Amino acid sequence: MSCLLRRDSCEWENLKSIFHPDAYIYTSWTGRTHFQDFIKASQAGMDKGVFIMHRIHGSTTDINPEATRAVTKMKATITQRFEFEDGIEADAESDCRFVFFWSKDEQTGNWRANYVRHFYEKDKLIPVDPNRIPKIDVEAAKKYPIGYRYLAYCQERTMGVKVILDLPGHRREAGSTANGEKHDMLYKQIKEWMDGQEVDI
User: Fold this and answer.
1) Helix, strand or coil for residue 97?
2) Dihedral sign of CA atoms 187, 193, 195, 197 in order
3) In whole angstroms, how far apart are CA 176 and each of 141, 179, 183?
4) How many CA atoms lie within 13 A of 39 on its CB side?
5) Which helix (H) or strand (E) holds 181?
6) Confidence (pTM)
7) Which of 14, 48, 94, 176 could staple 123 via S-S, CB 3.0–4.6 A?
8) Which residues lie below 8 Å from residue 56, measured CB to CB, with a gap of 6+?
9) C-alpha 13 chain-centroid distance
10) What is the pLDDT of residues 5-63, one digit of tens each?
11) For residues 21, 24, 27 and 30, what is the CA-based torsion angle, rounded to 10 degrees?
12) What residues does 61 pair with on adjacent strands?
């Protein structure tokens, strides 16, 4: 989807154009943040060498009968490169489902995003050089959710951020973890949005 392509390509003005003025985005490293602040943080991170990219695998979009609201669910992989001790590099990858909450601007007729959220389903850490494997504190890593464990572990240790630990996970976690509870809550919010309810996401 163009949102991720524009972000990864540093097309900031084009990226801004897809959002309503009061739109919000959730990420593991920002939590709930206004889209303008997310763009500023992304710009600052890239200027410091933070390297986050996305691979898009497919998407579906549901539109309500009145054609005033829609929800896009997009399968994607977040991949971020990290440098460890002795210059060892590895890519943390989290398979996600992005969720875009859209509504039509009544004055212009344009569709714009109100919210962007994610389901974090599973992740892994891949050494760039198979002969040089980074050392991970196994016990410390266990505190992070399984859907974005290594991504969160590496972000906290290299970016100076506090990662949000209760973001929506996979259906297999339903009822057993905070991430499973947030999984069910996000699906409820999707339904409420499509039903035309006022939803604070």
Assistant:
1) strand
2) positive
3) 19, 8, 11
4) 20
5) helix 178-194
6) 0.92
7) 94
8) 1, 4, 5, 74, 75, 76
9) 20
10) 788 787 888 889 999 999 999 999 888 999 999 999 888 888 888 888 999 999 999 99
11) 80
12) 72
The kind and range of the H/E element at 157 are helix 149-159
Class of the domain covering 3-194: alpha beta
Give the count of beta carbons closer than 10 Å to the beta carbon of residue 150.
23
The rounded distance, in Å, linking the Cα atoms of 184 and 112 is 25
d(CA 183, CA 169): 5
Structure tokens at 99: 């969720």
Residues 125, 131, 133: CA angle, nearest 5 degrees: 35
What is the CA angle 59-104-3, rounded to 5?
A: 40
- Rounded distance between C-alpha atoms, residue 154 and residue 186, angstroms: 26
The gap between the terminal CA atoms of the chain, to the nearest Å, is 21
Q: In the block, which residue shows the tokens 């977040």?
A: 78
pLDDT for 2 equals 64
Angle CA 179–22–77, to nearest 5: 40
Residue type, 150: Y
